[in-house]
Request: fold
Amino acid sequence: MTISRTLKRLAAVAAIAGAFVAGVVASRAEDAPAGDPVNGKRLYLADGCFECHGRAGQGGRFNYLTPALAQIALPVESFTAFLREAPNDMPSFSADVLSDKDAADIHAYLSSLPGPKAAKDIPPILNQ
Ligand code: HEC
Reply:
């Protein structure tokens, strides 16, 4: 078999695998429980997420910069898994402290936050 044939086959296998993974991810996202952003806000404040990540989910500082969470890109499963075993300086939140439903609610709240404005939408500060 020529090298170019082998490469074509590999590309075909990769494309099929990619489509399969995309399908699994999409069906998982549909299965996820719909979070309640109102309860999510309550938990975000009560559980102290805001102390490190900011009241508007804008990010902040702990021992080093903490990431912004508004308009969170992580899917809810990855988000919940992250909370269960947080790395470095973030405390972990076990299911006893924060259930999967609670995590989904916080995720829904973070998704509902507007996040930063585009630079062009911030009015300039003018001198008098
Ligand atoms: C004591 C400070 C602190 C608290 C409280 C805290 N976090 Fe964090 N969080 C961090 C730090 C620091 C990181 C960055 C971790 C690293 O070094 O990778 C982080 C990272 C994250 C990330 C990953 C974001 C990304 O883009 O990689 C998520 C999601 C997150 N936190 C959610 C939460 C939620 C939800 C709560 C409340 C239940 C919470 N955090 C409470 C400090 C905190």
